[in-house]
Amino acid sequence: PTELDKFIFLYCYSKLSASDREAIQTLAKTEGLKTVTFGGSNRWCDINLAYDPLLFLSLYDKADYIITDTFHGTVFATIYEKKFAVIKTTSQKFWMFSKCAVCLTK
């Protein structure tokens, strides 16, 4: 979307905890950024978009920060050389990945 200038892109499958949500909102406010997501799992974001593969790549390209809980989200953040954070989830499926991804952010 052309109206997006400065934003944090949330690519998360899980619903975020209140403390994670608060930290992201604080970062957005401090940096003067909008929060953008798609898929509807984080309806509290400023902008919620429908899934679209080309939009996905465009959001990664233009985002100031990436917040993710997925393997692919981390890979794309690395490819696009973005500042990113991996959210640790309670889901067993993502637990091992989240634990490994923390090493990438250090």
Key descriptive features of the protein:
20% strand; five-stranded parallel sheet; globular; 4 helices
Quick overview of this protein structure:
By secondary structure, the chain is an alpha/beta fold. 43% of the residues lie in helices and 20% in strands. It is globular and about 30 Å long.
Question: What is the topological layout?
Answer:
Layout: E1 7-11, H1 18-31, E2 34-38, E3 47-49, H2 53-62, E4 65-68, H3 71-79, E5 83-86, H4 92-104
Parallel strand pairs: 1-2, 1-4, 2-3, 4-5
Question: What can you tell me about this protein's structure?
Answer:
This protein is an alpha/beta fold. Helix content is 43%, strand content 20%. The chain has 4 helices and 5 strands; from the N terminus they run E-H-E-E-H-E-H-E-H. The protein has helices at residues 18-31, 53-62, 71-79, 92-104; strands spanning 7-11, 34-38, 47-49, 65-68, 83-86. The protein has a 5-stranded parallel β-sheet with strand order 3-2-1-4-5. The longest helix is centred in the N-terminal third of the chain and has 14 residues, at 18-31. The chain starts with 6 loop residues before the first strand and ends with a helix.
